[in-house]
């Protein structure tokens, strides 16, 4: 079977890429190792800034809209806010990813499900993409195969640091005060190194989880057990045992190219996960869109795929450089940020503007640095002689 492009992996990155390629009349295969719909470990929060990539059908898929935020530092000092308009939506990834794959098929891509790509080689001008059942020939390959990407490993693309996140799904019928969670995300920090815990509302369950970007080994399952104890102390042992648990790496880009000759990586395969709070769906969609334009020109015999690296640098990596600094500030000064910016509500407008795409990481980072510094300086006593010139 011959294709112009084989896309490996039908998560949001792969399906979005396959859809756009097919819409341009490019013969595309979308190969997925599982059968869809399939579970994917993910809190399923889709930020407002991802909406332009998703089209009209998306809102029918949403489980809840988010207008509330509750922040807690070390399980204490709870502060809550509500925004006028939704800043994000929640989905379940089985339905969301299936919807995106169906859109790719409707656009003309061929979906090959239940086949894992085992090996990719080059013969002449062709890539030979082999699953256990077939070998597909392609002019170009898109690696959308997630954090452990075979495509990235095979072609030496996008080195990644792997953090980890775990989740448990708590049925709403087991949650006593479940109305409290409607339209609201709970974010807890101060007890997980370089990470945080969350509760996201879905129509029939809560997604309760935590993640860490720490290089040290963190007992995430144990911490999630504790978190469940704190948040739902009334859950009986029997119900706790029945919860659906899963974990997955969270990949953060650490260097290297995103494209080679005829091959490139998108989404988690490229490590395009926000290094501050771990958002990945938006960047999976955005990177796919950037990739498609470049692949089209590559197939026409013109541009090299290197243009994709330049575009990612301009549109995403520069934002991530600042996000790394924001993460450093937040995870090193968590208590101070909570006391001075979260508790006083000053961060909410800035944070929702970031999540909805109304402001960039550059301006958010500047605001955060300025306010933390201002707060620190305001604590220096007026009669402090230490820095007075001429003394
Ligand atoms: C616990 C947790 C919570 C998260 N919460 C959020 C959140 O709330 N919001 C958010 O934006 N992001 C969140 N993320 C990150 C988000 O899940 C990812 O960034 C996103 O799924 C990336 O999409 P993708 O298409 O690049 O990769 P994936 O969604 O991982 O899709 C990759 C696909 O490739 C397939 N595949 C892999 N290898 C092969 C192969 N060899 N052959 C064929 N198919 C293959 C896989 O089966 C999979 O379907 C979370 C992550 C975790 C772990």
Largest sheet: 8 strands, mixed
User: pLDDT below 50 for ≥5 consecutive residues: which ranges?
Assistant: none
User: In CATH terms, what is the fold-level topology of the largest domain?
Assistant: FAD/NAD(P)-binding domain
Q: List the ligand species.
A: flavin-adenine dinucleotide
What is the CATH architecture annotation of the largest domain? 3-Layer(bba) Sandwich
How many distinct folded domains?
3
The number of helical elements comes to 11
Give the distance, in angstroms, between the N- and C-terminal Cα atoms.
82 Å
Coarse shape: globular
> What is the N-to-C succession of helices and strands?
EHEEHEEEEHEEEEHEEEEHHEEEHHHHH
Let me know the CATH homologous superfamily of the largest domain. FAD/NAD(P)-binding domain
Query: Portion of residues in helices?
Result: 25-40%
The percentage of residues in β strands lies in 25-35%
Q: Tell me how many strands there are.
A: 18
Textual characterization of the structure:
The protein is globular and about 70 Å long. Helices cover 35% and strands 28% of the residues. The strands form three sheets. Strands 1, 2, 8, 9, 10, 11, 17 and 18 form an eight-stranded mixed sheet that branches. A seven-stranded mixed sheet has the order 6-5-13-14-15-12-16, with helices on both faces. A three-stranded antiparallel sheet has the order 3-7-4, with no helix packed on it. It has helices at residues 12-23, 58-61, 93-107, 150-155, 220-231, 237-242, 281-299, 306-332, 334-342, 346-355, 361-378, and strands at 2-8, 28-31, 45-47, 64-66, 68-73, 76-82, 88-90, 110-112, 117-123, 126-131, 135-143, 159-171, 184-189, 195-201, 205-212, 244-255, 259-260, 263-265. With 391 residues, the protein is an alpha/beta fold. The protein contains eleven helices and 18 strands. Helix 1 (12-23) packs parallel to helix 3 (93-107) and helix 8 packs parallel to helix 11. The structure holds flavin-adenine dinucleotide. Flavin-adenine dinucleotide binds at residues 8-14, 31-34, 40-45, 116-117, 144-146, 150, 165, 167, 209, 211, 248, 250, 267-269, 273, 278-282, 284.
């Amino acid at each position: 079977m011959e294709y112009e492009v084989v896309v490996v992996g039908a998560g949001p990155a792969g399906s979005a890429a396959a859809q756009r390629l097919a819409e341009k009349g490019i013969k595309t295969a979308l190969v997925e190792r599982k059968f869809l719909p399939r579970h994917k470990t993910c809190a399923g929060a889709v930020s407002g800034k991802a909406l332009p990539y998703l089209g009209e059908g998306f809102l029918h898929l949403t489980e809840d809209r988010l207008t509330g935020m509750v922040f807690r530092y070390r399980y204490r000092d709870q502060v809550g806010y509500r925004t006028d308009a939704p800043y994000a939506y929640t989905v379940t990834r089985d339905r969301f990813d299936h919807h995106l794959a169906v859109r790719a098929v409707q656009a003309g891509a061929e979906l090959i499900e239940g086949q894992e790509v085992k090996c990719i080689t080059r013969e002449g001008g062709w890539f030979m993409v082999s699953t256990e059942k077939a070998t597909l020939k392609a002019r170009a390959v898109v690696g959308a195969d997630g954090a452990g990407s075979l495509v990235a490993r095979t072609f030496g693309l996008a080195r990644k640091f792997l953090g980890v996140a775990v989740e448990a799904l708590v049925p709403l019928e087991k949650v006593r005060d479940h109305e409290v969670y409607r339209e609201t995300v709970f974010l807890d920090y101060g007890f997980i190194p370089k990470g945080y815990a969350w509760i996201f509302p879905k129509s029939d369950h809560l997604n309760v989880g935590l993640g860490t970007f720490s290089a040290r080994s963190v007992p995430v399952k144990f911490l999630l057990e504790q978190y469940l104890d704190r948040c739902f102390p009334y859950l009986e042992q029997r119900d706790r045992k029945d919860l659906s648990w899963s974990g997955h790496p969270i990949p953060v880009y650490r260097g290297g190219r995103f494209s080679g000759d005829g091959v490139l990586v998108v989404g988690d395969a490229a490590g395009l996960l926000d290094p501050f709070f771990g958002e990945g769906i938006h960047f999976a969609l955005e990177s796919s869109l950037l990739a498609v334009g470049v692949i089209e020109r590559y197939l026409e015999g013109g541009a090299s795929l290197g243009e994709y690296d330049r575009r990612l640098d301009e549109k995403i990596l520069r934002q991530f450089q600042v996000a790394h600094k924001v993460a450093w500030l937040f995870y090193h000064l968590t208590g101070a940020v909570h006391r001075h910016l979260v508790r006083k509500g000053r961060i909410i407008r800035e944070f929702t503007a970031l999540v909805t795409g109304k402001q960039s990481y550059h301006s958010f980072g500047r605001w955060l640095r300025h306010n933390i510094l201002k707060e620190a300086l305001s604590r220096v006593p007026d009669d402090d002689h230490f820095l007075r010139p001429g003394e």
